[in-house]
Automatic annotation (TrEMBL):
Name of the protein in question: ThuA-like domain-containing protein
Annotated signal peptide: none
Taxonomy, superkingdom: Bacteria
Organism: Parahalioglobus pacificus
InterPro entries in UniProt: Class_I_gatase-like, ThuA-like
Alphabetized UniProt keyword annotations: Membrane, Transmembrane, Transmembrane helix
Domain called ThuA-like: residue spans: 65-291
SUPFAM superfamilies: Class I glutamine amidotransferase-like
Length: 301
């Protein structure tokens, strides 16, 4: 009997140890999957703020574009890679200066003054310290230009009140899910505005469509383009639940004057192939040229 009891105890211990190992492996696989899909950074966002400014080229050029793609939450890796390529090619074609960094310490008065427009290319999360945020605010209000792309308008920026109220003007609700990416029709609402130059009156685009609690229209923002909700399914289907994300009036591209500066935002640009859609290329070029304000005109929407 004692031999049987010892053997049984040994079997139970081996089984328990095997279950522990299996559990650890499963947790590791789940963690890897969350990391691979970018969800880990949403659940456990970083709050790291850079303190040492990057070294900039001795001669940046003028006008100059600063592309900033730091991600302290979800990272659109492929989109950032393709977006920087396309933005760089636009700057090269226009003979503008161009710098790309993910170092938030570049947001200081001395270095910002070397640029005419700052692009937040899918930048997410708590990216900047209070001092860096204030340096950027002062720079914009003194005449700098800002261009936010896609995730620059998601829900990870709510801790920065000035940014939310003055640059975005809309609180992110959610994006479509199930399917996550759908082709829909974009309607160019104000075809006479420089931000709409060369854009078709209506055009197709495959996107992870964002929705907001309210339209930025009427809050000092000028809507350039909307998405036709009748051309896609504005639902978020998740774990058996369906959420209606329709807005009715659904802007996806808008702008405003901020002090002496200019701000423009486009919700397009989740996937890398978005940057190869000809109207999207035109939109990027328009937004950069308008935000740079090369003619030195007062902002007037």
């Amino acid at each position: 009997m004692e031999t049987v009891s010892v053997a049984k105890s040994s079997f139970v211990w081996r089984l328990f140890r095997a279950l522990l190992i299996l559990g650890a492996v499963l947790l590791g696989l789940i963690a890897f999957a969350l990391w691979y899909m970018g969800i880990w950074s949403v659940i456990f966002p970083s709050t790291h703020h850079d303190t040492r400014p990057p070294e900039l080229p001795a001669a940046v050029g003028s006008p100059a574009v600063l592309v900033f793609s730091k991600t302290n939450q979800f990272r659109h890796t492929e989109s950032i890679e393709r977006g920087t390529e396309v933005l760089s090619s636009i700057a090269q074609r226009r003979e503008w200066g161009y710098v790309h960094t993910e170092n938030g310490a570049v947001f200081n008065a001395e270095q910002l003054q070397r640029f005419d427009v700052v692009v937040f290319l899918n930048a997410t999360g708590d990216m900047l310290s209070d001092e860096q945020e204030m340096a950027f605010q002062n720079w914009v209000e003194a005449g700098g230009g800002w261009f936010g792309i896609h995730a620059a308008g998601d829900g990870s920026h709510t801790g920065w009140r000035w940014y939310m109220e003055q640059l975005l003007g809309a609180l992110f609700t959610a994006h479509i899910l199930g399917p996550q990416f759908q082709v829909a029709t974009v309607i160019t609402e104000d075809g006479l505005h420089p931000l709409a130059e060369g854009l078709p009156a209506a055009w197709e685009h495959n996107e992870e469509w964002y929705s907001w609690e309210q339209s930025p229209r009427g809050s000092g923002f000028h809507v350039i383009a909307t998405v036709d909700e009748g051309t896609y399914t504005p639902l978020q289907n998740f774990m058996g639940q369906s959420r209606d994300l329709s807005m009715g009036d659904h802007p996806i591209y808008w702008a405003r004057c901020v002090g002496k500066g200019r701000a423009v935002y486009s919700a397009l640009g989740h996937n890398a192939d978005a940057y190869d859609n000809p109207p999207m290329r035109q939109l990027l070029d328009n937004a950069l040229r308008w935000a740079i304000n090369g003619e030195g005109q007062a902002c007037d929407l």
